[in-house]
Amino acid sequence: MPDVRLASPQGKWILLTTILGSSMAMLDSTVVNVALPRIGHDLDASLAALQWTVNAYMVTLAGLILLGGSLGDRYGRRKVFTLGVVWFAAASMLCGFAPNPAVLIAARALQGIGGALLTPGSLALIQASFHRDDRSRAVGLWSGFGGIGAAVGPFLGGWLVAGPGWRWVFLLNVPLALLCVPVALRHVPESADDRAHGRFDILGAALGALALAFLTYALIEARTGSPAVVVSAVAGVAAAVAFVYVERHRSEPMLPPDIFASRQFTAVNLVTLCVYAAFGGFFFLTALQLQVVAGYSPLAAGTALLPTTALMLLFSSRSGALADRTGPRLPLTVGPLLCAAAMLLMLRVGEDADYLTDVLPALLVMGAGMVTLVAPLTATVLASVDTARAGLASGINNAAARAAGLVAVAALPLLAGMGPEAYRSAPAFDAAFDRAMPICAGVLVLGSALAFTLVRRPAPGCVRPECRQHGCVTAPPLETGGRG
């Protein structure tokens, strides 16, 4: 039984290690968007290359995150977490020294592999190390500090881009890793799950990642109309079909199809796909809109986005408590509608937009909507399956959110009619942005309708989230389901 106490020196070192590791991935998910215009200008990259700068990371992370958690359970959580930190830092260094868009995109894909190894391991190490009486407080501190990291990410990214340069957005991960790894090896006890057995579903993970990669390529390059787009689309559909076949016929699949026998679990994941597709498109385009059209500096654009994540960090735990009393249907219906309203308010953000009257109201409404829906979303996911499968359910939901975001980043510029050089022209980008926001709002309204129609109150006595505070905008919090 885990016996490390939070007040002990070892407990503090373990907490520091897990916060540093998870902060690397959280920071990276929020700071890169702010750096995109400078990356594009410095590397002479097209809009498609900027889309891939975001999506190459998301493809490997979303496709492999379930496998990463399983590897930690089998071979040792500290070992896999440490490997993930080293891998992530090495890929970050490659990103920082990338001489052209192709190298940057490849390095971002490698970063996603490291993220898939370290992201599930952070919370799993806390669950496996701390005494039962201290675990809840340790998780609270971990999620709180992680939320702070996500909240300051855009500000930090803007400061780095405006000062030392965009390459330091990636190189910052190297000193964090140099601090994290020795502490982990010295102070974090190794742990594994004795019940973990059987073969890893490597084929399923590979097919899932390939399906996402091929379909993403087809969406990003669709405007070219080349034969490669058709081939990629067909290959993506074939990989997706093969993935479903493999998962249905494996004795121990990565994504067990029978988990979707729960109508509540299926419903909440459909809502997740809608809301995080809209969020992915919104934050990708808004960081560009503020700089390309409104004329904000990278620092000003990063700072402008702070209110949304700050509201999530401050009020997500209260939102979860309120949803416990009202049931999830109301917040999962109202939250997306608030976010949809925020995206329509963003239509006021154009050339020389005033922050207080044009930008801030939209971001405050956006933050209120995300506060309303994110905590109940996670709670409903956990409550919709058996306790023993809570960690798996959370992992599937987290991967679904990331996959929805990457598809949105690939598809939204196409649907909005953005050309390959749109981010170099303020009028062209502004016109496309004005077409994109109503699309995002419509997807959110669809998510709200699905929640109102399909989501029901969970049964009493179900698993509750341990991550009460959350500031990440790219995916819901990842729960391990461990309560022992």
Structure commentary:
- The chain is an all-alpha fold and 484 residues long.
- The chain folds into three domains: 1-188, MFS general substrate transporter like domains (Growth Hormone, Chain: A), CATH 1.20.1250.20; 201-253; 259-484, Up-down Bundle (Growth Hormone, Chain: A), CATH 1.20.1250.20.
- The chain is built from 16 helices and no strands.
- α1 packs across α10 (263-293).
- The radius of gyration is 21 Å and the shape is globular.
- The chain starts with 8 loop residues before the first helix and ends in a 30-residue tail after the last helix.
- The mean pLDDT is 89.
- InterPro entries: EmrB-like, MFS, MFS_dom, MFS_trans_sf.
Number of helices: 16
Q: Tell me how many strands there are.
A: 0
CATH topology of the largest domain: Growth Hormone, Chain: A
Largest sheet: none
> What is the chain-wise order of helices and strands?
HHHHHHHHHHHHHHHH
**CATH architecture label name of the largest domain:** Up-down Bundle
Give the overall shape, derived from the CA principal axes.
Answer: globular
Q: Please report which band the strand proportion falls in: under 5%, 5-15%, 15-25%, 25-35%, 35-45% or over 45%.
A: under 5%
CATH class call of the largest domain = Mainly Alpha
Determine the CATH superfamily of the largest domain.
MFS general substrate transporter like domains
Instruction: Compute the separation of the termini in Å.
Output: 8 Å
State the secondary-structure class.
Answer: mainly alpha
Question: Helicity level, as a percent range?
Answer: over 70%
